[in-house]
Amino acid sequence: MKQKDSDRFTPIGPNSRKTSRVRVTEADPPCESASRRDLLRFAAHGAAVPAVFMLGGLGAEAHAGATKAAEGLKHPRAGAAPGVTPTPGRIVRDFSDPYLELVRLLHEAAEIEHSLMIQYLYCAFSVKPIYAGVVGYGAPNTNDLLGVCIQEMQHLGKVNQFLVALGAAPTLVREDFPYEPEIYPFRFNLEPASRASLAKYAWTEAPLGATDVRNAKTPADRAFCVELVRALDGGVRPNYVGSLYDAVIAAVEELIAARDKSLPDLQPWIGALHQIKQDGEIGHFQFFKRFFMGTHEGFGGRPNVWNRAVSDPHYPARQLPINPTAYVGHEKQIQDPDTLALAWLGNLHYWIMLSLLAQGYGRGSREHVGLAMGHMMGPFWSLARKLASVGAGMPFDPLSLGYTPCVSGEANSRFVARLLGEADKLEKQLGARLPADFPAGCCRGTRAAHRRLESLPRLGRVPTHPWDDGLGRG
């Protein structure tokens, strides 16, 4: 049947770019010298200006504090979870005030967790249905890919809850298209599962020493290290995420030691941060190691799955495009009109989900977080599977407006309602072109539930302790 012009949907919008301002340095900043050359070198490595001036001789007490702060740059961790080895790398400090530094680092941590989550999701939807055991079914765990994705979402939730507990705004933005990374683990790419992509994921989740062949204790570990380096093909090695959390934990402990009465009890957050680090360095790393080596039980014992030709039916992944977009005019724009419309609807549900999460984290509302999860596990899931089946891919385009673009909570709620109306209108327009398992009327249901939530008194339930899982099921 010929498609009517009115049925062709052509979204137009910008694709914003976000770059990290957190730096990692290999050079040790000076701890005692206050010469002009040392001050300039220290400043060049990103030390906060107040910390630099304190080195200039403002008294023994100030000098001792600055020296301790500088040593913190060399060793940014303060304690580690049992069985977790601290990762290397020094996070360059911008602020001498530990509160400002902590908020800054948590914002970057939220963006990294968000970026990892969607890259892992794109990877998951690329895996062929015959390997469903590798992908999993959406329960949080460290034994399948969707389980790891859900845990990344939990990490995103906990980091945002901590920001709100500190009196800061939650952040749902993330890194956009590729650029040379600083603290970000690797260049952002939406790409299908492959030996190369899995090597990046395994490396960045790894604990200290796990990727060094000199530390290999078994032939299997040695083979893994050799294959990992080969798959990275001599490129820039990804950063370890654990080093960022070491710096976050150090800033928290510095604030605890300062006994700042204006802040809530920060001690419970130490355990939550260690758990995030442990999830990555133990559970996620081991999963990606088995995925990369083709030894995961979800491969059904098939040997050498990654050595097969990509045209082989038993090769693990569909060859989805890299960094597709539903924004018209971009060089990576999805071309087929029907697929473009489905991808744009996927974007709308992605933005609805993030807007609801921003409201939920900002208010301490598990109900809003629950609505967001309903969109992820319902319409978004359906569209992502459909797009992968036709050789496209969920674009995860960023929304340049942000996810709390208005000046008040009431106005942001109206913004979410309009997003839901926009998605509902497009769903009606697409009609039979929607996936067979698409939950019809989901936007109208969410809009009604959201309206009921907005009519309730705002209790200001800001979390002072981490929720049990970060997804509203505490």
What's the SSE pattern? Answer: EHHHEHHHHHHHHHHH
- Helix/sheet category: mainly alpha
- Strand % is under 5%
Number of strands: 2
What would CATH call the homologous superfamily of the largest domain? Answer: Ferritin, core subunit, four-helix bundle
- Strand arrangement, major sheet: 1-2
Low-confidence residue ranges = 1-6, 14-20, 25-88, 177-181, 469-474
CATH structural class of the largest domain: Mainly Alpha
N-C termini distance: 50 Å
Helix content: 40-55%
Principal-axis shape equals flat
- Let me know the largest β-sheet: 2 strands, antiparallel
Provide the number of structural domains: 3
Query: How is the CATH topology of the largest domain named?
Result: Ferritin
Q: Number of helical runs?
A: 14
Average the pLDDT over all residues and give the rounded result.
81
- From the 3D coordinates, which CATH architecture of the largest domain would you assign? Up-down Bundle
Radius of gyration: 23 Å
